[in-house]
Amino acid sequence: MVFPSLTRCFLLLLPLALLGASTPIDSNTMDRGDGVYIHDKDGKIIDFISMDAVQTRAPEVNSTDTADVVQLEPRFAFEVKCFSAKFDKNDKRVGLSDLGDIMDRYGTVSAGTSISVQYYSVITYVCNYSTVTINCDRGTSGKVNVGLDMSCKDNVAARGDYRSGISYGRTAKGKPFCN
After folding, report:
1. What are the strands, taking DSSP E only, across 12-155?
2. What angle do CA 39, 108, 90 make, to 5 degrees?
3. Alpha-carbon span 26 to 23, nearest angstrom
4. Confidence (pTM)
5. Most CB within 10 Å of its CB: which of 9, 15, 67, 167?
6. pLDDT tens across 113-160, in order?
7. Nearest CA to 171 among 112, 95, 107?
8. Could you tell me which residues are beta bridge partners of residue 166?
């Protein structure tokens, strides 16, 4: 019978979704220019890759051990949150593409960390609020952003939250995120 295993899985993942990020990330601290920022659970920048380096960097093989990775629930199972901040939708397109490149290279977001891309007026991001490493990829990010565009408009800050503890979103430069 399938239901007991689904219930067990849901009960295991529910506490992860309730953890939330303890500190929202203040994008005003992202003062190194356009590029990819890696943040720890306290919102501090722990790594930065300039946009020039992102666009010229050779792809890397993802050698992550998948033993500790949690698979996401179906791609349509996310909660949408719309915000008031606005940005240029063409900047969003580039930011999402660059975020997708990073996610395709690395394939996971470590527990309690986030990855963000700042590109002119927009910040695109993926946040892992859980205590485990979670898979991330361009396809899921793209599908979430299509849903956000349909629910919130294509130039408005929004976030799609999965119960597993991962969120994909976009906001205007200077606004907090992963909160």
Report:
1. 35-39, 45-50, 78-86, 108-109, 114-119, 122-128, 134-135
2. 70
3. 9
4. 0.71
5. 167
6. 999 999 999 999 999 999 999 999 898 888 899 999 999 999 999 999
7. 95
8. 128
